[in-house]
Amino acid sequence: MSPRIVRTVAELRAELAPHRADGIGFVPTMGALHEGHLALLRAARDENGTVVLSIFVNPTQFGEAADLEAYPRTEDRDVALAAEAGADVVFAPSVEEMYPAGFATTVSVGGAVAETLEGALRGRSHFDGVATVVAKLLLAVQPDRAYFGAKDAQQVVVVRRMVEDLGIPVEIVARPTSRDADGLARSSRNTRLSDAERELAAALPRSLRAAQDAFADGVRDPRRLAGAVRDELAAAGLEPEYVEIVDAGSLEPIAEVVRPALLALAVRVGPVRLIDNVVLVPGVDDRIPLTPVERSHR
Ligand code: PAF
């Protein structure tokens, strides 16, 4: 059945009011849905009576106007895919609905969780934009559970911090990164890669896998593990914006991987900035499967 599309918070609240007792699952997105989003929707479908998808390209989390402009907008296709994955309601507000004239509040998460990695590269405003819009969306939907992909690992840590600090009554569920057969993390931005760039981008998961292989061989020094990533990227002619290994919970730097550590990277491939990560857990061998694919991936 086609989901009901609502554009205002008032309509959304009225639509959800009769369904609260059965549990509400929420998947916030910026649209251009891919298999990763659909996996989140299916998980929400399994665990809740009602499933809400939001589609809102949030201008406050984009640093570059060109990136915001180029962000794919495919609402009709998204709604059709969301219907198949079991969404009941699609909340697709306008910019004016989310940020009406006079809007003057920012939710800002401090400390390493927001200031390292993407925060260091994209500036404070990125996670301020994410935290503010996610807070607004959570207040609008008031879900029991909200679902996020582990590809945006730092976003999950920032949102968890915010939810705990503000006492927002919602369970944040992080689901594993969805990957193409050759390991590339699924992202709405991948559609902007040419065929040649898409082929180059396969070096990202290969580089993470090289570090996972070294980790499985007993390497615990973050510099050596990051070196394995850099070498693999360099072999493909790619220069990362960062390759960092940090504590998976606090995102603080570490001297040795003795607890779960987040290995995260950002790399520009052609016009597109891609991010990816894996968590290295001592005693756990969980490597990215890499299956070569024909280039008929789209
Ligand atoms: O991950 C995203 O798509 C966005 O950052 C989110 C959580 C929908 C907030 O705009």
Present as ligands are: pantoate
CATH third-tier fold name of the largest domain: Rossmann fold
Cross-sheet strand order for the largest sheet: 1-4-3-2-5-6
The CATH H-level homologous superfamily of the largest domain: HUPs
Total helical segments: 12
Structural class: alpha/beta
What is the terminal separation in angstroms? 26 Å
- What letter string, H or E per element, gives the SSE order? EHEHEHHEHHHHEHEHHHEEE
Helix content: 25-40%
Protein architecture, described:
- The protein has helices spanning 9-16, 35-47, 65-70, 75-85, 95-98, 112-115, 117-122, 124-141, 153-166, 195-201, 203-216, 222-235; strands at 4-6, 24-29, 50-55, 89-91, 145-149, 171-175, 240-247, 261-269, 272-280.
- The mean pLDDT is 96.
- It has 298 residues and is of the alpha/beta class.
- The protein has two domains: 4-175, HUPs (Rossmann fold, 3-Layer(aba) Sandwich), CATH 3.40.50.620; 188-280, Pantoate-beta-alanine ligase, C-terminal domain (Pantoate--beta-alanine Ligase, Chain: A,domain 2, 2-Layer Sandwich).
- The strands form two sheets. The chain has a six-stranded parallel sheet with strand order 1-4-3-2-5-6, with helices on both faces. A three-stranded antiparallel sheet has the order 7-8-9.
- The protein contains twelve helices and nine strands.
- The relative contact order is 0.13.
- Pantoate is lined by residues 28-30, 58, 61, 130, 133-134, 152, 155.
